[in-house]
Specification:
The protein contains ten helices and 15 strands. The chain is an alpha/beta fold. The protein folds into two domains: 210 residues, Ribonuclease Z/Hydroxyacylglutathione hydrolase-like (Metallo-beta-lactamase, Chain A, 4-Layer Sandwich), CATH 3.60.15; 103 residues, Oxidized Rhodanese, domain 1 (3-Layer(aba) Sandwich). α3 crosses α5. The relative contact order is 0.10. Its EC number is 1.13.11.18.
């Protein structure tokens, strides 16, 4: 029986967000992959790879992070956009070179590989990476040493997280090393046996865990970098050279900040009277707004087309803008796109249906 060449790994740390980045390669190959890089440490990561005589070919993201901007895009730019591929879960809604799902295999080199394990709950698109010999699993924020990731934003679900962790991570052999995405107390690694025995959250019954998580995390105290991190990480940190903003990829989805969700308290009639630009993104005949509005179609499969058409018609970045649609979802995405482009006075006008009649248009 042929013995597998051993894996070589480096664990790197970002002090600001307490994020761990991992380099993994086979001893018999020069190819390497990187897990969860941080933008501010791209030069460090390249230096470590060079010292290891390693050639970076793959960048894996365990999920769309909220507390830091990924270094994926900057690494692709520095090392060659075609030479390095980015990976993220298909369920995340994010854009990457390769979208993966449960049980997919990611080649490390020299016959070694990682298996993708779908571990949603912290976010819907969380994945973990299990080595082929089950000696290690890279879990992102699904499991932390003595804890787990939050579930109160980004579509988190406490019950789902509990099931994911129990079925996909803590069911591995006792000696499997658990490599977390963060640690805030100076710890570096744990094992399945340790977390099954000592983790104060994950040793609870499911109902107790859900109650604890839903009580402890109530949607407040969001990560300080969330507004910058999520839009950037939804496109794996690929930035425009001219605007320094996230590149808008066809078919990509955007996280929508709370401020662009429909607000029934906004006095839309007053804003309309004041001359706000109104753009109706509704599909079908009739639309949402019965008065005159800007004719700029919403391109669901290419958001960059909407943005370019809107900018051509409204070149003033200080112009008051109201986007509307039937549910507020398209308007929310549109507001996020326009804010990234530099527009400064944006409103989600879901309640514009009767405004035209109200003001006599």
């Amino acid at each position: 029986m042929n013995k597998q060449p051993p894996l070589i790994m480096r664990q790197l740390f970002d002090r600001s967000s307490c994020t761990y980045t991992y380099i993994v390669k086979s001893s018999g190959s020069s190819d390497a992959l990187l897990i969860d890089p941080v933008l501010e440490h791209v030069s460090r990561d390249i230096s470590v790879l060079s010292n290891m005589s390693a050639n970076l070919t793959k960048i894996l993201n365990t999920h769309v992070h909220a507390d830091h901007v990924t270094g994926s895009g900057a690494l692709k730019e520095r090392l060659g956009s075609t030479a390095v591929q980015t990976f993220i879960s298909r369920e995340s809604g994010a854009v990457a070179d390769v979208l993966v799902t449960n049980n997919d295999k990611i080649d490390i080199g020299d016959g070694r590989f990682l298996t993708v394990r779908s571990t949603p709950g912290h976010t819907p698109g969380c994945i973990s990476f299990e080595t082929d010999d089950q000696a290690s699993v890279f879990v992102g924020d699904a499991v932390l040493i003595g804890g787990c990731g939050r579930t109160d934003f980004q579509g988190g679900d406490s019950a789902q997280l509990y099931d994911s962790v129990k079925e996909k991570i803590l069911s591995l052999p006792d000696e499997t090393n658990i490599w977390p995405g963060h640690d805030y107390n100076g710890r570096t690694v744990s094992t399945v046996k340790e977390e099954n025995t000592f983790n104060p959250r994950l040793t609870l019954k499911k109902s107790e865990f859900v109650n604890l998580m839903d009580t402890k995390f109530d949607g407040s105290n969001y990560p300080s970098k969330i507004d910058a991190s999520l839009p950037a990480n939804m496109v794996c940190g690929v930035f425009s050279e001219t605007t320094k903003q996230p590149v808008l990829h066809p078919g990509g989805f955007l996280w929508v900040p709370e401020k662009f969700k429909p607000d029934k308290m906004v006095k839309l009639a007053e804003r309309v009277k004041a001359g706000a630009v109104i753009c109706d993104l509704s599909s079908g005949e009739g639309g949402t707004y019965s008065g005159d509005s800007l004719d700029t179609p919403w391109h669901e499969n290419d958001h960059s087309l909407f943005l370019s058409e809107f900018k051509a018609k409204v070149p003033d970045f200080d112009a008051p803008v109201i986007l509307c649609c039937k549910t507020g979802k398209r308007a929310s995405k549109g507001c996020a796109l326009l804010e990234m482009a530099g527009y400064r006075d944006l409103t989600n006008g879901i309640n514009l249906k009767n405004v035209a009649e109200e003001i006599g248009e």
